[in-house]
Amino acid sequence: MQKFIIEGGHELKGEVAVGGAKNAALKFVVASMLSSEPATFTNVPDIEEVNRLLELCTFVGSEVSRDDGQVKIQTKEITNIKLDPELVKKIRVSVLLLAPILARKGEVHMPHPGGCAIGQRPIDLFIQGFEKFGVKVTENAEGYHFKTDKLRGMKFVFPLVSVTVTETLMMAATLAEGKTILKNAACEPEIPALAEYLNSCGAKISGAGTNTIEIEGVAALSGGVAKIMPDRVEAGSFAILGALCGNPIRVTNCNPEHLEALWTMFDRMGVDYKLGPDWVEVRKTDNLKAVDVVTHEYPGFITDLQQPFTVLLTQSKGMCMVHETIWEGRLFYTDKLKQMGAQIIMCDPHRVIVNGPSKLYGRKLESPDLRAGFALVLAGLVAEGTTTIENIYQIDRGYEHIEERLQKLGAKIKREE
Ligand code: EPZ
Quick check: CB of 165 below 6 Å from ligand 1? Predict the structure, then answer.
């Protein structure tokens, strides 16, 4: 089991370039499987979750080649409709394969996907969406069996906003017969980017990026080429690092427009930062003012930055509330911040009160999930003394070569077996 050893209390200085967005790359790979022709994606991050998904695509019948940040994938035939339970449990996005497999084969056996630390992550909306397409869904102990002769266009009104259900139904609808309308759809920036790629392959999608998306089904899609957009969560995570210990830190290769909800929080707290067209420079700022934060679908404050942002709140003056409205399990990591000395009270699974500033001390910790893991790295970099973080596979899932990039900024962090 690998772990990070971090010696805290050092100011960090320099530039860090943001990688390709994990939560875009995963969907582009799945979208490529809607076509039997080859697709090429560049700026694909070299992270666990992408590598696991490519394994699963190969299992299903894709030919995949990877050369640094470039992925070539072609799925001439979908040859396996019984998905491997071990692979499906490893990554949440396996459920998105429902779109290409049902659109091209009309049948799939989908094992129960694993939940994870942030919530039990049901797939009821995926099932309801495909039933509206005319798919017959039956559940058994192993998982779900989906079967249909073809997908028929339909209207789906989301009872709650879901990013990957929006993406999955939008992908499936590109090859359905007739027109599909998705209402109360998610508006995350990765969704119009995915629609733009699919339209470049011959799809007819309009309204992506708004809460009403219309898709006119077509007979087939061609292959395509796309560059994956910058990872806004990684960019925001490094900007928060800058506010904690930057002297200063410049985050490059990013799109600041995708993080306006974070900049407005920085303004209210008094963070010293400057925005450029594709960079942000942030300096450690004393006497930050603590502010309440509520996570919300885009363009609200992204839940994936809640955990790193809460570390910044522990170093800010005053009492504030963190309200995690999306996930029922995404605040339990605050126990570990409390072990380090943070003053945090959990009101319920969705809300904690943070009182700051509080001095943090290095501790032995374990990373519960991807973004909490990065939050613990941030806390370790700020804390006095040495912090050990185990289970760092979770961090490798979403942050590429993270310790090397932090070392370049002057961080005292090393990976040990
Ligand atoms: C995506 O997950 C992201 N993952 C998550 O990022 C992100 O936290 C989340 O969107 C919210 O922005 C990827 O894109 C791979 P949801 P997703 O469906 O689509 C409930 C990270 O850190 N729900 O928008 O799975 C669900 O339980 C990850 O990179 C149902 O009830 O999230 C949640 O409460 C973590 N039934 C709410 O919807 C369903 O069938 C919103 O989740 C599906 C979802």
Answer: yes
